[in-house]
Give the backbone structure.
Amino acid sequence: MANDPIHQFHIKTLVPLEVGGIDLSFTNASLFMVLTVVAASAFLIFSSSSRGLVPTRWQSLAELSYEFVAGLLRSSAGTEGMRFFPLVFSLFMFVLVANLFGMFPYFYTVTSQIIVTFALAMLVILTVTIYGFAKHGLHFLHLFVPAGVPGALIPIVAPIEVISFLSRPISLSVRLFANMLAGHITLKVFAGFVVTLSAAGTAGIFGAVLPLGMTVALTALEFLVAFLQAYVFTVLTCMYLNDALHPSH
Amino acid sequence: MNQSSQPGGDNGAGRDLSEAELSARREKLTRKLDEHRLSEQRAEARQTSSTGAGMAQAMKLSSEFIAGIAVGAMMGWLLDHWVGTSPFGLIVFLLLGFAAGVLNVMRSAGIVAELGRPGSGPEVQKKVESRGSEQDSGDK
């Protein structure tokens, strides 16, 4: 169906593959994940290949993205946080390129799959937990006891803080996934109105101008959302990493 | 202006008067500035709400809230499943999850301090020190 707004999210198996009863087929989602990684790496390798003191356009674009993420990480997790820079920068580039890839017609939006965003969020939260325990030991558990809580209230407050901590990967992944999914469905629905209306004669063609204008506006908004969500994901990652570095302020 | 021939008390009174005048003027200016800032903020809020930032805010807050409840319910259900305390684990942890969801929303809206941040007041400092966690003044 050309007018089905959900159709764009269907997973199609490209290369069937099964290992030990587990379906490991190469799907269109996998293809676009590979393309995302290739595009992001190619951009950075190409733009940093001819390193000059006076940067070219591409080089300054790469430097801009580096400075942007480095600044975010430094401001929220301090200079110690820079040891996580490879992780944070890779996450930012992956999410940003995947979001922007989704804006091409006929391309698959990888970040509109909750399992993809959830895997990214789990990567972040496992890094925080493992590094926190490795560096601070049991001292890391002070994260769950806010300063200034009376001793009698700790048995109630601590579980709430633990649940709040565990809900981070969920809210992190749901936010990215829901934004991309909702945006793409809205875009498709409004574009579908244009097709349906223009099929209804002359009056319909004039009426179709309204949803067409809306589609143009939504496309611009979606580009904004694509960048904004990558930014939000990165900022929250930095904040969580800060908790791993300094569990008690 | 104060003449040198005038008594000292008069001199001080004159300064007082001018200071009172100055403070009144300062107050007026502060009020004006506040008004200006408020109207600017309102205009900004109106502008951002029209560009889909409200949608982003709604998405953010609702995902925080739902995540808290979902994790609480999941933990309660798993506890029941393993320990066999059905249905009390689910009930208790669902309520705790609700509290955590509200906490998440308030944190994300900036009403409550972030996780791992100290409160204020001497009692808090004492408690933190007695628990043996060093106070880190690094800002977030």
Remarks:
- Confidence is low (pLDDT under 50) at residues 1-12, 118-140 of chain B.
- Chain B has one domain: 12-109.
- The two ends of chain B are 52 Å apart (CA to CA).
- Chain B has four helices and no strands.
